[in-house]
Amino acid sequence: MSTLLPLLQAADAQRTALLAQLHDENTNAYRLFHGSVEGRDGLTIDRYGDVLLIQTFHTPLSDEEHQTILDHYAPLGLHAVYNDRSGSNSRIGNPLPEAELAEAQQPRVISELGVNYHFEARHDGQDPWLFLDLRAGRRRVMQLAEGKSVLNLFAYTGGVGVAAAKAGASFVMNVDFAESSLRVARGNAKLNTLATRPRCVQSDFFPAIRQLSGLGQAKMVRGKKMPPFQPLEARQFDLVFLDPPRYAKSPFGVVDLINDYAALFKPSLLATAEGGIIICCNNVAQVDADAWLDQLKRSAEKAGRTVRDVEWISPEADFPSFDGKPPLKMVLLHV
User: Fold this and answer.
1) 178 falls in which pLDDT band (50, 70, 90)?
2) 303 Cβ partners below 8 Å, 6+ apart?
3) What total number of domains does the chain contain?
4) pLDDT at position 213 over 90
5) Does the keyword Transferase apply (predicted)?
6) pLDDT value, residue 1
7) How far apart are CA 268 and CA 280, in angstroms?
8) What's the CA gap between 283 and 326, in Å, rounded?
9) Which residue from 45, 202, 243, 269 could staple onto 33, CB 3.0 to 4.6 Å apart?
10) HSE (side-chain half, CA atoms, 13 Å) at 184
11) Could you list the residue range(s) of the whole structural domain that residue 33 is in?
């Protein structure tokens, strides 16, 4: 018997209650196997609608492992797609036969908490268009969004923004640098019946948030002309969602979740209305949650704002952790 099979069986048993709940909530996208915790480091197996998405990030699957996975999940009747991302930069490195590639590139619609999203197992980018570990964050936003204005920063394909609009937000703004991601976000909005259609702003984070927060973005910085950027009026939002990548650099600034989260947090906080909510995410495993929260509180104090209450949002049970300290940290601050 394959050494992987009992690990898959154990993962199934751990998810019985959660999957029943998710299906009742009109959700057909979730993680079936989280290898870093469940026994095969670097292997993830996700369900996205009728697709079984298998991904490896450290070492490729052996032929035996691949067949074990296909056999184990065969009763679900899903189309299996394998993306080997164990090479440099996590780029998909394994070619697929023509028929399998066509199936992987087939446009599909998946559902989470009653919200519909576009999905393709292979597309021009690398990452799936909906990050499943962020479901708990989207769930919390849906619980809070009714009647509120919502700012979704580093919006990617707009999942948080569409979820907020579906839950009755009065106004939603998605901000992301990549027009290709916002194109998917606009498509996601069209898949759903929404009282308000999210506004998608294609912009580097820094000029967008500096303008929204009232700090302003100069066209010349230290004698250097800045690239063109979209003008935005200053305004504050009832709910701000901040989910930056680990590291990114542009002429406007540096995104660095380890060394300078405050550079992202302060202007985002200033764009949050008094008495509002800001939800901050940090996906760097080595960052200690308590130390990070202390940094956020100190940054808020320096900005003249008070953190009135704190709520941790934990990824759901399809993303288990050894010690209750998952790599993805989400904290909700009442400010």
Assistant:
1) very high
2) 266, 269, 270
3) 2
4) yes
5) yes
6) 63
7) 10
8) 9
9) 45
10) 25
11) 3-106
